[in-house]
């Protein structure tokens, strides 16, 4: 009796497995006829409206948008599928495009499909970042994350600093101005200006105009990383930092309650403030001090394994055009890379969080002023070494000189 | 004196139970809040009023029931196959004597020393060559006999199944498979119950392999579907926690069910020599 019971269960399992295999074949047969293109993307990379526009525009193709888990998981899946029959035709790439540039042969060269003439339409630095070499473009840009200075109105008022965004932009133009304002904040309001030494260091790292590596050798931005380091250490030692971790509940609570006073943030941080329940009028936006910088922004690329490179390139061009970037901005607040979107209506965008302030010009300024810095795929690893040491200064009061020396020693081991 | 001791032990056990239950309670609290409430300091310790709303949002955004069915199918099928093949191989290693047995067992144990991550890319290429990428076959078949399960069953068989019983069955005219199926397998029940639980949980919680293998959202497992709640720039934590809570419930039910099985299995009439 028991023999029959176990046998039945096992039989059922095997039958189901076989049935599944058969299902796959049936679906494949049903899709024959039209050119089929699959597009892998992650939550928040492409709006539903842009997808619908594209499906409608290319009704002669069968487009399959597939949402894949984001960030490292997306990269793992993409890298594993290189060269596989199961790879998508088109894929999104996050802002870590430097990881993919050395593997340009895995991607279709989009310049072969007439993309060079589109260069003037897109934000220059982002466009430049898509080239593995002067004649090989592996992707087209979707969005960027230009940064502006968000300041806490009540804290600035308490410290006797201006609260009008234009005046703040005028007063805090350079990194030195930023530190002077922080000193005034501490002296007059007894409040920290910055979230933490680590956050400040990371912000300054993004402003570097020279790479961590030069011609393949560790160069630490030819002194710029040390400048960023010294800036963060000075702010920390002078008591200008709250020293709460970036991201997470404590940071959100500090933003709500104004426990610190200023932050250089990408445009999408507006959504963070909305999500974490910050009251309207708590923060306003001004021009970021010092060098312009950016956090985030995705791309779309065509994989070499596709059977239809011409058609896939057409789809990528359409998905990143003005119409679809407008849709992405409206639905997901993705900051456009297509300059035609920066029209009058865009510049006059307001948000109830900031009253009637028209803040987009500050982000657009940063987007246009940025210059592309060639990045080595090892840069992120080296930067994390220095950020970890900064964390030790912040959390365990480690001697900054020792921390720098330890970080340099470890960075030299990265090949 | 003994009454005081009994009371203290009960109190301690009660406290341990409360401590163990707290993470589940906290999950419920977080799942019943709005995103803005999650960030409040000090946090509220009481259950909020958004649970139903969050459950509806998770179901709407992730094809939850579809993913639940997919995961159940994969986990149940994998578990049944693991139980069959591992018990068969474990029994053979414990009770049959054949040439190269020691070498094969050592080789099998050796495979346990290789970190799973090292296997991912070669396994993917193998699945790609077989044309199994995107199919459940790639999730079920490679894992249907695993070294740990075979080792576990082998150890159990060696300790718990007396050779005399197998010899008696042989004298009665049983074939080797019949001895395995009708004599050894029922005795293995406690070990199989543990292996079933272990295997089911492993399959239920597996993330990396399904991530790489599955390409069609309609085939996503629960773990993959839940990560869709995470955007690149922002995370709605109450939705993620609600999803996690919903995904944990079937495992909890299973654990409660299997814990009874485990205890009854252990106390079932074992044969003594």
Textual characterization of the structure:
The complex is a heterodimer of chains A (415) and B (273). Chain A has 415 residues and is of the alpha+beta class. Chain A has two domains: 33-144 and 296-341, D-Maltodextrin-Binding Protein, domain 2, CATH 3.40.190; 148-293 and 371-411, D-Maltodextrin-Binding Protein, domain 2 (3-Layer(aba) Sandwich), CATH 3.40.190.10. Helix content of chain A is 46%, strand content 13%. Chain A is built from 17 helices and 14 strands. Chain A has helices at residues 2-30, 48-57, 71-81, 124-128, 153-158, 165-171, 175-189, 197-206, 224-237, 248-257, 269-275, 309-319, 322-332, 344-347, 360-369, 379-396, 400-411, and strands at 35-41, 61-67, 90-93, 131-133, 136-137, 139-141, 143-144, 147-152, 213-214, 217-218, 262-266, 283-286, 299-302, 335-336. In chain A, helix 2 (48-57) links the parallel strand 1 (35-41) and strand 2 (61-67). With 273 residues, chain B is mainly alpha-helical. Chain B has a domain at 62-229: MetI-like (MetI-like fold). In chain B, 74% of the residues lie in helices and 0% in strands. The longest helix of chain B is centred in the N-terminal third of the chain and has 32 residues, at 64-95. The model of chain B is unreliable at 269-273 (pLDDT under 50). At the A-B interface, helix 1, helix 3, helix 10 and helix 11 of A face helix 2, helix 4, helix 6, helix 10 and helix 12 of B.
């Amino acid at each position: 009796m028991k023999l029959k019971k176990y046998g039945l269960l096992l039989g059922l399992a095997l039958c189901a497995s076989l049935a599944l295999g058969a299902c796959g074949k049936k679906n494949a047969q049903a899709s024959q006829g039209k050119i089929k293109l699959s597009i892998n993307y992650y939550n928040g990379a492409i709006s539903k409206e842009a997808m619908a526009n594209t499906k409608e525009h290319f009704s002669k193709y069968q487009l399959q948008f597939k949402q894949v888990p984001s960030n490292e998981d997306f990269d793992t899946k993409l890298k594993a599928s290189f060269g596989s029959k199961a790879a998508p035709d088109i894929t999104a790439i996050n802002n870590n495009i430097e990881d993919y540039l050395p593997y340009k042969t895995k991607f279709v060269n989009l310049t072969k499909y007439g993309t060079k003439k589109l260069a003037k339409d897109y934000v220059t630095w982002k466009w430049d970042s898509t080239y593995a070499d002067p004649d090989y473009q592996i992707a087209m840009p979707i969005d960027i994350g230009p940064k502006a200075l968000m300041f806490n109105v009540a804290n600035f008022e308490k410290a006797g600093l201006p609260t009008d965004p234009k005046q703040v932009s005028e007063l805090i133009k350079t990194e030195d101005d930023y530190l002077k304002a922080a000193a005034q904040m501490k002296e007059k309001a007894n409040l920290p200006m910055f979230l933490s030494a680590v956050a400040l260091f990371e912000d300054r790292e993004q402003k570097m105009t020279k790479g961590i590596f030069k011609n393949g050798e560790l160069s630490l931005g030819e002194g710029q990383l040390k400048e960023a380091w010294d800036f963060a250490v000075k702010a920390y030692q002078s008591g200008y930092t709250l020293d709460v971790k970036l991201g997470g509940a404590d940071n959100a609570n500090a933003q709500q309650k104004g426990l610190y006073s200023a932050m250089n943030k990408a445009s999408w941080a507006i959504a963070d403030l909305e999500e974490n329940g910050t009251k309207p009028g708590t923060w306003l936006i001004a021009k970021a001090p010092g060098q312009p910088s950016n956090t985030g922004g995705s791309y779309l690329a065509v994989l070499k394994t596709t059977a239809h490179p011409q058609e896939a390139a057409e789809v990528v061009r359409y998905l990143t055009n003005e119409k679809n970037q407008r849709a992405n901005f409206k639905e997901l607040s993705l900051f456009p890379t297509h300059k035609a979107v920066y029209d009058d209506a865009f510049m006059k965008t307001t948000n109830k969080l900031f009253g009637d302030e028209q803040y987009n010009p500050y982000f657009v300024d940063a987007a246009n002023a940025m210059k592309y810095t060639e990045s080595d795929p090892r840069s992120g690893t080296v930067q994390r070494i220095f950020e970890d040491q900064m964390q030790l200064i912040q959390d365990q009061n480690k001697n900054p000189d020792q921390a720098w020396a330890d970080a340099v020693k470890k960075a030299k081991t990265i090949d | 004196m003994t009454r005081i001791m009994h009371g203290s032990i009960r109190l301690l056990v009660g406290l341990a139970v409360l401590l163990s239950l707290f993470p589940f309670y906290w999950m419920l609290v977080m799942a019943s809040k709005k995103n803005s409430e999650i960030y409040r300091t000090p946090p509220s310790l009481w259950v909020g009023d958004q649970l139903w709303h969050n459950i509806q949002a998770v179901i709407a955004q992730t094809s939850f029931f579809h993913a639940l069915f997919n995961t159940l199918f994969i986990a149940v099928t994998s578990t049944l196959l693991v139980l069959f093949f591992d018990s068969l191989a474990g029994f053979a290693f414990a009770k049959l004597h054949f040439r190269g047995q020691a070498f094969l067992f050592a080789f099998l144990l050796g495979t346990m020393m290789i970190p799973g991550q090292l296997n991912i890319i070669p396994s993917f290429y193998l699945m790609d060559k077989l044309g199994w990428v995107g199919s459940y076959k790639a999730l079920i078949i490679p894992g249907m006999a695993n070294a740990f399960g075979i080792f576990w069953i082998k150890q159990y068989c060696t300790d718990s199944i007396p050779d005399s019983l197998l010899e008696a069955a042989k004298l009665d005219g049983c074939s080797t498979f019949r001895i395995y199926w009708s004599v050894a397998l029922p005795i293995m029940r406690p070990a199989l119950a543990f292996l079933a639980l272990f295997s089911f949980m492993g399959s239920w919680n597996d993330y990396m392999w399904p991530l790489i293998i599955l390409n069609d959202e309609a085939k996503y497992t629960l773990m993959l579907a839940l990560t869709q709640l995470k955007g690149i720039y922002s995370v709605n934590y109450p939705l993620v926690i609600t999803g996690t809570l919903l995904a944990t419930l079937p495992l909890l039910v299973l654990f409660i069910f299997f814990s009874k099985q485990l205890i009854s299995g252990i106390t079932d009439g074992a044969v003594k020599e």
